[in-house]
Amino acid sequence: MTLTTAALVGLALGLDRVVGEPPNAAHPVAWLGRLVGALDRPWSDDDRVQRLLGVPIALVVPLVPAVAAGGAVLAAAAVHPLAGAGVAGLVLYLSTSLRMLLALTSEVVAATADDPETARDRIRGLVGRDTEPLSPAELRSAAVESAAENLADGLVAALLPFVVLAPFSLPAAAAVAAWIKGVNTLDSMLGYPSKPLGTASARLDDLVMWLPARLSAVAIAVAAADPGALVRAREWARTPPSPNSGWPMATLACALSVRLHKPDGYDLNPDAALPTLADGERAVALVFRAALVAAVLAVALGAALEALLSTAGVVA
């Protein structure tokens, strides 16, 4: 089953590389976003009530894509095992995103050279902060930060449980990958301090992202051939308010020897200079290599777990 898992990971990454994101009209994540948007309203004037109402939203909404994904794999497998595997690979592809992230990051970095207004406009697809007062170097910093954080959110978070579960149950692997994408989507839309309704979603996302963020940091250090970057990053990894995003961001900052700075937020590797245009280009290339490293590490982890359980007689 390890070879099957590796093939499905290759299928998902290959589709992302060649096809990119499906149009919103055909993308299940966009459909989920419309559901979340319909729920994102002031159900009460009391913030405490809003926070309480956010709990069932956080618990139930991610189950919608999970049930749909698992059911689709089961239905396809009933027709033919290869069909089930193909649908599982398709679910992983739809639950992850890399090409769009890197393309948008590259576009923002390039625009900072001579068209900062375009960079400010395009970077809104990566970050939620106010971009008007940002200098070109700060815009590059924001883009690089987002690339590091979204390596964990957009790829590793769904990939890791998929490869761990795939050798044992493809429907379960697909369901969990889709569930995590649902959790990430909820957090990205509701998980702001200004939205009490999203408090539970943000906390759930913090829990789910604990391991993927740290695995992403390891992948960045390995891809940079600089394991010391991970050690150096420990000094600043807990600086951002998120318990997870600081790890890949700080590791990327240390691996590139650049400063990543969010005004009134955090300062990572502050003794270095903000990213130059060349640094931004290097960041895109490094995050791409780190994505490949993360995929290999995840498959290896899944294979090791499968071998361990087989030796213990838990699986045949």
UniProtKB/TrEMBL annotation:
GO BP annotation list: cobalamin biosynthetic process
Topology with respect to the bilayer: Multi-pass membrane protein
Pathway: Cofactor biosynthesis; adenosylcobalamin biosynthesis
InterPro entries: Cobalamin_biosynth_CobD/CbiB
Protein name from the UniProt record: Probable cobalamin biosynthesis protein CobD
Lineage: Archaea, Methanobacteriati, Methanobacteriota, Stenosarchaea group, Halobacteria
Ranges annotated as spanning the membrane: 52-75, 82-102, 155-180, 286-309
Record-level Gene Ontology MF annotations: ABC-type vitamin B12 transporter activity; ligase activity; threonine-phosphate decarboxylase activity
Pfam family of the protein (one): CobD_Cbib
Function of the protein: Converts cobyric acid to cobinamide by the addition of aminopropanol on the F carboxylic group.
One of the record's GO cellular component terms: plasma membrane
